[in-house]
Structure formats: C-alpha cells, structure tokens
Inverse folding.
C-alpha cells in the first residue's frame, strides 16, 4: 500500500504543479499535460513493480533446486 499512496501523492502533486493554470478561468486544467503525467507515473510504477516482483522471485529460488540437493539423501528434519 505504501507504493500506491506515494504514487498517488506524486501524481496529484504533478497535476497541481503542471496541469492546473491558476490564471485561466475558461480552461483551468490542461488535459494533455494530465495525460502525460499519468503515463509517466504509470510507466515508472509498472517498472518498479516488475523489479520488486523479480527480486522477490529470485530470493525464493527454484523448488527444483532444493529437490536436486537432496536427491540421494534425505533432507534434514524440520
């Protein structure tokens, strides 16, 4: 949940900084800038999620590796 909240806060801050025009009364939000900000933040979030998932899988290891370790011997008791 921490990653989602930080991405939401970052996106909201970027929209407030770049997309909302304080002096415009007719069109206060530039929708193209909002779209670009959301695309960038979504891409960065997707990349971070892939990196975290790949890191978690590499730490767990392949279960077949553990089976090969104890092919001729019995594994130690739990």
């Amino acid at each position: 949940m921490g990653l989602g909240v930080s991405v939401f806060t970052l996106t909201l801050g970027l929209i407030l900084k770049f997309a909302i025009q304080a002096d415009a009364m007719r069109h206060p939000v530039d929708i193209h800038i909002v779209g670009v900000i959301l695309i960038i933040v979504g891409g960065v979030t997707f990349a971070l999620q892939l990196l975290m998932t790949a890191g978690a899988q590499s730490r767990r290891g392949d279960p077949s590796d553990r089976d090969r370790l104890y092919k001729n011997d019995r594994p130690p008791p739990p």
